[in-house]
């Protein structure tokens, strides 16, 4: 993806700010295969052809990604306190940078969400997801520890997973320093970050301090992306922000050895049925017009089949809505996500 020039950036911002009625007239009706899609999301899907991710190299993608996110993040100002944290290495892996978000009226010890950003394990950072994490912390009144895990292709699988699991276990062990109740620590993430959160929940299930909740937003669950098993991978392969070509490229960067794509640490949906039993309750939100939709649905169903409380939400949007604060529908779904997180971790009397 080429870096977005200033005139294009200004034009896109103006288009996103147009009334939804004008947007609808510009792009026409939502196509039949995506008839549940919000008109605003369909407009963004059409607009994404201007700012879409074209796989090149990891470095070039990282240079371009922040500008794309900034176009759809909007603005947000809230009295949030942040603290930069360096999670110590454990002799096996290096230190892991992180950022702690503390909302107002957050009296310790309180709940914590350990959050893993999206970006295909190749792009994204605590900075690209800063506004979304600020919104979520403020609206849910839950502290958030956003984790800057290692990225591919420089650090391929299982580096991202190893950092994510290490970060969760470190947070649980250092709950007092974070102002956190160790019994109310959740894991969560969007897209590739949702993949990491699901895998961490499975692999820390038997820890003395296991996750209390999973917040999985349009997660990657099965890197085989079988279009027969998951029809959305074929139905929405082009034209809806995330493309099949881009997703396949991300998978190749993260798991250059195709055999590793069936490892449950990379594809948590492929874990043995017993691995699902006893994991934390989950909220799984999928975008209805997203190649990843059906594998997210399948993951929620696998949790339910194992007796785990799994709330599945089909959001009439495209991939990436967690970062879309510039859109009214993005803000609407953030409000819902914050409510779910608060209800899961904050007592009703608090």
Keywords for this entry:
350 residues; 12 helices; 39% helix; 8-stranded mixed β-sheet; alpha/beta
Order of H and E elements: HHHHEEEHEHHEHEHHEHEH
Strand order of the largest sheet: 1-2-4-3-5-6-7-8
- Rounded to the nearest angstrom, the radius of gyration is 19 Å
N- to C-terminal distance: 46 Å
Q: Please report the total strand number as a whole number.
A: 8
Residue share in β-strands: 15-25%
Write down the overall mean pLDDT.
91
What's the tally of helices? 12
Please describe the biggest sheet, giving its number of strands, its sense, and whether it closes into a barrel.
8 strands, mixed
**What spatial form do the alpha-carbon principal axes imply?**
globular
Content-based structural category: alpha/beta
**Helical content (DSSP H or I, runs of 4+):** 25-40%
- The residue ranges in which pLDDT falls below 50 over 5 or more consecutive positions are none
């Amino acid at each position: 993806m080429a870096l977005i020039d200033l005139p294009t950036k200004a034009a896109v911002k103006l288009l996103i700010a147009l009334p939804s009625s004008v947007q609808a007239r510009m792009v026409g009706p939502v196509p039949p295969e995506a008839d549940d899609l919000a008109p605003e999301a369909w407009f963004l899907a059409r607009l994404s052809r201007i700012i879409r991710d074209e796989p090149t190299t990891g470095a070039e993608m990282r240079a371009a990604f922040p500008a794309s996110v900034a176009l759809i993040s909007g603005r947000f100002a809230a009295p949030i306190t942040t603290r930069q944290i360096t999670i110590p290495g454990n002799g096996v892996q290096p230190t892991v940078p992180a950022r702690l978000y503390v909302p107002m009226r957050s009296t310790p010890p309180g709940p914590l969400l350990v959050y893993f950003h999206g970006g295909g394990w190749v792009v994204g950072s605590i900075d690209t997801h800063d506004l979304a994490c600020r919104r979520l912390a403020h609206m849910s009144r839950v502290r958030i520890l956003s984790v800057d895990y290692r990225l591919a292709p420089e650090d391929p699988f299982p580096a991202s997973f190893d950092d994510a699991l290490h970060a969760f276990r470190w947070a649980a062990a250092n709950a007092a320093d974070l102002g956190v109740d160790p019994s109310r620590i959740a894991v969560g993430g969007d897209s590739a970050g949702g993949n990491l959160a699901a895998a961490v929940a499975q692999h820390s299930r038997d820890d003395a301090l296991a996750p209390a909740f999973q917040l999985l937003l349009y997660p990657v669950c099965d890197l085989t992306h079988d279009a027969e098993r998951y029809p959305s991978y074929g139905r929405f392969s082009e034209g809806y922000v995330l493309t099949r070509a881009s997703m396949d490229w991300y998978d190749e960067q993260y798991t250059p050895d195709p055999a590793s794509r069936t490892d449950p640490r990379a594809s948590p949906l492929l874990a043995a049925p017993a691995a699902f039993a006893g994991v934390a309750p989950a909220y799984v939100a999928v975008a209805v017009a997203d190649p990843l939709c059906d594998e997210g649905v399948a993951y929620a169903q696998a949790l339910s089949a194992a007796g785990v409380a799994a709330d599945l939400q089909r959001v009439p949007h495209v991939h990436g809505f967690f970062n879309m604060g510039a859109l009214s529908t993005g803000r609407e779904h953030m409000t819902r996500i914050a409510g779910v997180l608060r209800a899961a971790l904050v007592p009703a009397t608090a």
